[in-house]
Write a structure and sequence with these properties.
Length: 609
C-alpha cells in the first residue's frame, strides 16, 4: 500500500497531539504493521510460536498450531468446493474456536467472509445471506442455529449449507455436515501465493449494520481496516504477547472481532473466549484465566455495575479496558469499584471513514475535536447543527452546514476520502451509500459522511456522546432499525401502519423498542390479534428488536414528506400519566401483548428484560 494512503488511513484516528509526540516510535511501528494482512500476521506467529496458547475456551487450550491445523482443513475444504480468492462465504457461528479457525481458514485463500449475526431468523437471516452473493453458508453448532437455517432452507436457493457440531445422520436433507468434511480432510498448508492478488483495499469481510432502510446491510471491510483497527487497539492499551484478552462480545461485531480478537492476534497473545456474556461469571473468569485486558461496550460494564457488590470486585489482573459507549455518569464508578487502571474509549461506525479514540483518561471523553487538530485531519471531523426529527444537518442561507458552539449538541460528520467518493460502503444499491453522504457541506463539491449520532464539546474541546439519532436505536448492544421492525409489524393484515422508536428503561443502557400502531379498516385489536402480534414478532425478529411496548393510536402523524412523526410519541413513551391511548407490553408469560397498567408495569420492570 502506498505510504500516503497509509498516512491517510491512520490520520483518521483522533489522538491527543501530545500523546502522539511522546509515542512517535510506537506510531511508526503501527504504520509498518498496517502494511500486512491479518492472516499473514497469524501465519508468521504460527511459525514463531506454534506451542503458545492462542485460545482458551471452556477450560480447553488451543495453541497457535492447533488453530492453524483446523484453519488449513477449512481452506482445503473451501478449495475442494472450487472457491478461490475474491469469492465470498457467509458464516453464522457463535463465539467459539470454530469461528476463529473457520474465518482464518477462508482468509488463507483470500476469500471474503460475511459475518452473519447468529441471533437472526426468518426474513432478516434470508436477506443477510442472499445480500452478499455468497458461494456457501457455514453455520455453527447449536440447536437454535440449526433450526434457524432449516426454517429458511427453501429460500436460500442454490447456496449450499454446511453445519458444524453434528454428523450427517443428525441433519435434515439439504444440509451437509461440516464436521464430517473436517474429519476427512488433511491439514495441508497453502502457499500465501494463492492470495497474492488480494490487496489491502480488497474486502476482508462483511460486517452488517442496521440502518434506516430496514434490512441488515453488509458493509465492505477492507483488509486495511481489519489490520488497522487491530493495530490501533493494541497500541491504545499497550497489549503485548504476555497479556490475556477476555472476549465475550460477539465476533460478528467490530469491537469483539478487531478490538478484542484482532488486537490479541497481532500481539501473539492469548484470548479467553466465552460463548456469551455472563455478568455472574465475568470476574471469576477473569481471575481464573488471569485476564489482563478486556474489550467492552457500555452496556456490558453497566450490567457488571448492577450486580451485587463483592469484596472480590477489584481482585483481578486487569489493567486496561477498550471499547465504546461507556456513559460519563458511570465511568468513575466502574474505575473505582472494579479497580480498572485504564479505560480507552472510542467511537466509530462500521461503514465509517474514520474513528475517534480517547487517550486522555478524561471521564466519558472520546477524544478531542479541537480546531488545531482539525487542521491536521484530512477527514475534518466536525459537529454541525441538525434537525432532530430527520437527523440531517440544518443549512444556512448559503446552503452550507453550520458548525455548533462549545456545549451545543451537534451532528458528527467527517470528510470523505477522495478515493472513496465513487465507491459503495455497502454490498447494496448505490442509493444506500448516498443516504449516508452529505454534499456541498461547506464549499461546493465537498462530501461528508453523516454518522447519525450527536455529540457535545466542552470548553477544552473534549468530545462526549449525546444521543443516537434518526431511525435506529440501541438495545442489548445491538443497533435496531426502526424501519425493519415497522415493516415486519406491518405485514400483519390487521395493522395499517406502525411507527417504531426507542424509549428509555430505568437502569438500562440504550433504548427499548416501542411501536405505535394504527389498524386497518374494519379491524380490531382484540385478544386474538394481540396473540398474533406477539407470535409474529417473536418468530420474525431477533430478541433485541422485539418492541417491549405497543401503543394503539387512531391515526399516524406525518411530516411534509409523508414520513411518520415520532418525536412526540417517543417523548411520551409509555407514561401512563400522559398517554391516554391503549398501551400493551410484551408479555412472555401469556404469549401475547397484554394491557399495560400501573401494576403490570411494575411487574414488567422487575422481570428479566
Amino acid at each position: 500500500m502506498e505510504e500516503n494512503k497509509m498516512e491517510e488511513l491512520f490520520s483518521g484516528v483522533e489522538y491527543d497531539i501530545n500523546e502522539l509526540k511522546s509515542n512517535e516510535a510506537a506510531v511508526k511501528h503501527i504504520m509498518q504493521e498496517m502494511k500486512t494482512h491479518l492472516i499473514d500476521k497469524f501465519e508468521a506467529l504460527v511459525a514463531k510460536q506454534p506451542k503458545r496458547p492462542f485460545l482458551v475456551y471452556d477450560d480447553m487450550i488451543f495453541t497457535y498450531e492447533a488453530i492453524e491445523d483446523m484453519a488449513c482443513r477449512v481452506a482445503n475444504i473451501a478449495r475442494s468446493w472450487g472457491l478461490q480468492a475474491g469469492d465470498c462465504v457467509a458464516i453464522m457461528i457463535q463465539n467459539e474456536p470454530s469461528f476463529v479457525y473457520t474465518f482464518l481458514g477462508l482468509q488463507k485463500l483470500g476469500i471474503s467472509v460475511a459475518l452473519v449475526n447468529h441471533n437472526l431468523t426468518a426474513h432478516s437471516l434470508i436477506h443477510s445471506v442472499s445480500a452478499v452473493d455468497c458461494k456457501a453458508f457455514i453455520v455453527g453448532s447449536g440447536q437454535d442455529l440449526l433450526e434457524a437455517v432449516t426454517d429458511i432452507l427453501p429460500e436460500l436457493g442454490r447456496v449450499p449449507v454446511y453445519v458444524q457440531g453434528a454428523s450427517h445422520q443428525h441433519l435434515p436433507a439439504g444440509i451437509t455436515s461440516f464436521d464430517d468434511l473436517m474429519k476427512d480432510t488433511f491439514p495441508t498448508a497453502f502457499s500465501p501465493s494463492v492470495r497474492s492478488e488480494i490487496t489491502l483495499m480488497d474486502t476482508c469481510c462483511f460486517i452488517y449494520t442496521s440502518g434506516t432502510t430496514g434490512n441488515p446491510k453488509p458493509v465492505f471491510i477492507p483488509h486495511s481496516k481489519t489490520i488497522g483497527l487491530s493495530c490501533i487497539a493494541r497500541a491504545m492499551i499497550n497489549h503485548n504477547q504476555d497479556d490475556v484478552m477476555y472476549v465475550v462480545l460477539p465476533l460478528y461485531h467490530s469491537t469483539g472481532m478487531f478490538l478484542g480478537l484482532g488486537a490479541a492476534l497481532i500481539s501473539g497473545s492469548c484470548v479467553a473466549l466465552r460463548k456469551k456474556f455472563s455478568a455472574r461469571h465475568f470476574w471469576s473468569d477473569c481471575r481464573k484465566y488471569k485476564v489482563t485486558n478486556i474489550a467492552y461496550i457500555g452496556e456490558l460494564l453497566r450490567y457488571l455495575l448492577s450486580q451485587p457488590k463483592s469484596e472480590l470486585d477489584g481482585v483481578h489482573n486487569i489493567r486496561a479496558a477498550i471499547g465504546a459507549g461507556l456513559r460519563m455518569d458511570v465511568w468513575n464508578d466502574i474505575k473505582e469499584r472494579f479497580k480498572i487502571p485504564r479505560i480507552a474509549e472510542f467511537f466509530g461506525a462500521t461503514e465509517g471513514f474514520t474513528g475517534i479514540f480517547g487517550v486522555s483518561e478524561k471521564a466519558g471523553a472520546l477524544g478531542r475535536l479541537s480546531p488545531l487538530l482539525r487542521r491536521f485531519d484530512p477527514h475534518n471531523k466536525i459537529l454541525v447543527k441538525f434537525d432532530v426529527a430527520t437527523a440531517t444537518p440544518i443549512r444556512n442561507e448559503k446552503g452550507h452546514c453550520i458548525p455548533v458552539k462549545v456545549g451545543e449538541p451537534g451532528l458528527l460528520i467527517s470528510k470523505a476520502p477522495a478515493n472513496m467518493l465513487n465507491k459503495k460502503l455497502y454490498k447494496a444499491p448505490l442509493e444506500e451509500t448516498e443516504k449516508k453522504l452529505i454534499r456541498d457541506v461547506f464549499v461546493p463539491g465537498d462530501v461528508y459522511m453523516n454518522y447519525g449520532d450527536s455529540f457535545v464539546l466542552d470548553k477544552e474541546y473534549f468530545l462526549y456522546f449525546h444521543d443516537r439519532l434518526g431511525d435506529t436505536y440501541r438495545w442489548k448492544g445491538e443497533n435496531v432499525s426502526t424501519k425493519e421492525v415497522a415493516d415486519e409489524i406491518g405485514l400483519l393484515p390487521f395493522i395499517e401502519d406502525a411507527s417504531v422508536y426507542g424509549v428509555p428503561i430505568p437502569g438500562h443502557d440504550g433504548k427499548a423498542g416501542m411501536a405505535a400502531i394504527t389498524l386497518s379498516p374494519h379491524s380490531k385489536l382484540g385478544n386474538k390479534e394481540l396473540h398474533e402480534l406477539y407470535a409474529h414478532v417473536c418468530k420474525e425478529l431477533p430478541f433485541y428488536a422485539r418492541p417491549f411496548f405497543v401503543r394503539h393510536i387512531p391515526v399516524q402523524a406525518l411530516t411534509g414528506t409523508f414520513k411518520n412523526k415520532k418525536g412526540d410519541l417517543a417523548k411520551e413513551g409509555y407514561d401512563l400519566n400522559i398517554v391516554k391511548d391503549p398501551l400493551y407490553f410484551l408479555d412472555h408469560e401469556n404469549k401475547a401483548y397484554s394491557p399495560l397498567t400501573k401494576a403490570t408495569l411494575v411487574k414488567f420492570m422487575k422481570s428479566k428484560l
